[in-house]
Input
Amino acid sequence: MIKDKDRLMNYRKHLKKVRPSFRRVESWRYVRVKDSWRKARGIDSKTREKRKSGVKSPNIGYRSPKAIRHLHPSGFIEVYVITPNDLEGLNPKIHAIRISGKLGAKKRLQLIELLNEKGFKILNLGVSQRELEELEGIAERGAALLDEELEIEAELEEDEEYQELKELASKLKKKG
Output
């Protein structure tokens, strides 16, 4: 089955290259006629009559093989996931995961770690591994900077000159 699946995936890729881009009749001629496909309905239309001179129309012969229809190009079945509960009953050998774009960075990172533990393929990681490491580094540096700021504030609270300046500033605010 796997050899057959690989063969069919390659065949689908070939079909995609060979398949014409179906354009609406005369869309290249008039700006008001959009490019998206519409069935030709004119009484003298060469496309409707399927003559050689008309543009190609979509028909069943251009369809992909049924065994691999709706599969991701990687060969996995694509599954949309929002929460860890959505992973129930999924098999990492068959399913590939697309994570919701509405998730924030914190929950997304937790979900990515869980998916990596279970061995799922993630289709829309969104960022590269290097960028993920940079984000984690920024988060760590942010925590370190916060600690430094707290230490500096503690030192300033002990400083007598700082306290005097603070009192003067509060008096000036009260006056004007």
